[in-house]
């Protein structure tokens, strides 16, 4: 990434410009707007006149209706989980993929969930075209509150014609089945239905890898994170990396064992974390330069740190700094009568 003072940043892969990121906010500034149209002409020089004609029409373009976000889908008792996910995915489709070459929202994955969700609300209000990361955040926002649904990131790094591409989707798990929500230029690189097709996480990953291979992409890395808390106002950050898979360097049976290991780790993490008991995700992470293996991950006999708050809700931020180690999730269940089973804050 090459930072600049011209209102936008340039995202590159080597010498190839992938897209620009708007840093001026909305409405789009004149310099960002000019760069967006110029980049389009640079990408398609044979259609420069047609692009200019389209730009001239924008001035008098009739107003367009915006899709309404399905805010209450997650809490609906009349819909099954797979029907809720289908409605959320349909909304993401209606926002459409962003082909303009200008990312409209300034996003930092290192921000807290609260900060990311605040930007996500703006994205749904503006209803502008989005790319995979924005779709990931919108899916995360709208699935918050679906009881029993685990959400986690699945990130891909691929190479095509010497150019490196990155992609992310929101992986979901309900009961013993897996699926994914997201957006891509290719339909089979985004939405994976929760219809019982993927009984193992490895089946879901393999389906994505096969889809990439059909388009001539070489999958260099698949990265999976920890389950994400069902709390839109949490000041925790998303743990993007807990397991790296290198399909070209790792035998399929080996990374299936690693995936099975990470599923066992997930069982120790209370995904629907309560106000008074929040898992310390750092207790399950490794340094970013370390390739996670089965031997590197903690086992059930190792304690997992929890943050506990025995005070009122008004002081939960301050008291959340106190840590009380417990040896298993079973010990936490003894406090069931003292805490709310699900902390869904919107």
Unreliably modeled segments: 273-346
Gyration radius, rounded: 21 Å
User: In what range is the share of β-strand residues?
Assistant: 15-25%
Distance between the ends: 33 Å
Percent of residues in helices comes to: 25-40%
Q: Tally of extended strands?
A: 11
Number of helices: 9
The SS-based structural class is alpha+beta
Largest sheet, strands/sense/barrel: 5 strands, antiparallel
* Secondary-structure element pattern, one letter each: EEHHHEHHEEEHEEHEEHEH
Mean pLDDT value: 80
Strand order of the largest sheet: 6-5-4-7-8
What is the 3D form? globular
Structure summary:
The chain is α+β, with helices and mostly antiparallel strands and 346 residues long.
Account of the protein in words:
The chain is of the alpha+beta class and 346 residues long. It has helices spanning 30-43, 48-58, 81-95, 113-126, 132-143, 201-214, 252-266, 316-319, 329-333, and strands at 8-13, 16-22, 102-103, 149-160, 163-174, 177-181, 218-224, 243-245, 277-279, 304-308, 323-326. The strands form 3 sheets. The protein has a 5-stranded antiparallel sheet with strand order 6-5-4-7-8, with helices on both faces. The chain has a 3-stranded mixed sheet with strand order 1-2-3. It is globular and about 55 Å long.
């Amino acid at each position: 990434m090459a930072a600049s003072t011209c209102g936008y940043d340039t995202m590159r892969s080597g010498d190839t410009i992938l897209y620009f990121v708007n840093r001026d906010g909305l409405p789009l500034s004149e310099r960002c707007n000019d760069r967006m149209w110029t980049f389009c002409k640079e990408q398609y020089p044979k259609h420069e006149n047609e692009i200019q004609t389209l730009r001239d029409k924008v001035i008098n373009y009739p107003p367009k209706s915006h899709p309404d976000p399905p805010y209450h889908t997650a809490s609906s008792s009349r819909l099954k989980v797979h029907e809720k996910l289908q409605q959320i995915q349909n909304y993401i489709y209606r926002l459409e993929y962003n082909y303009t070459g200008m990312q409209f929202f300034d996003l930092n994955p290192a921000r807290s969930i609260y900060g990311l969700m605040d930007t996500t609300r703006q994205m749904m209000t503006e209803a502008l075209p989005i790319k995979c990361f924005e779709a990931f955040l919108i899916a995360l926002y709208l699935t918050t509150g679906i009881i029993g649904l685990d959400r986690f990131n699945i990130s891909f790094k691929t190479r095509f014609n010497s150019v490196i591409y990155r992609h992310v989707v929101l992986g979901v798990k309900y009961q013993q089945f897996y699926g994914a929500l997201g957006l891509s230029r290719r339909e089979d690189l985004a939405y994976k239905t929760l219809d019982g097709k993927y009984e193992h996480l490895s089946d879901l990953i393999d389906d994505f890898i096969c889809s990439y291979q059909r388009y001539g992409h070489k999958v260099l890395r698949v990265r999976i994170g920890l389950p994400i808390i069902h709390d839109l106002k949490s000041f925790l950050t998303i743990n993007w990396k807990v397991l790296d898979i290198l399909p070209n360097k790792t035998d399929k049976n080996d990374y299936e064992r690693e995936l099975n290991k990470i599923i066992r780790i997930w069982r120790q993490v209370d995904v629907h974390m309560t106000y008074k008991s929040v898992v310390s995700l750092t207790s399950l992470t490794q340094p970013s330069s370390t390739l996670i293996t089965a031997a590197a991950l903690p086992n059930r006999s190792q304690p997992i740190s929890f943050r506990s708050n025995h005070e009122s809700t008004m002081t939960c931020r301050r008291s959340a700094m106190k840590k009380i180690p417990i040896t298993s999730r079973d010990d936490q269940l003894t406090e069931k009568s003292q805490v709310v089973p699900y902390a869904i804050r919107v």
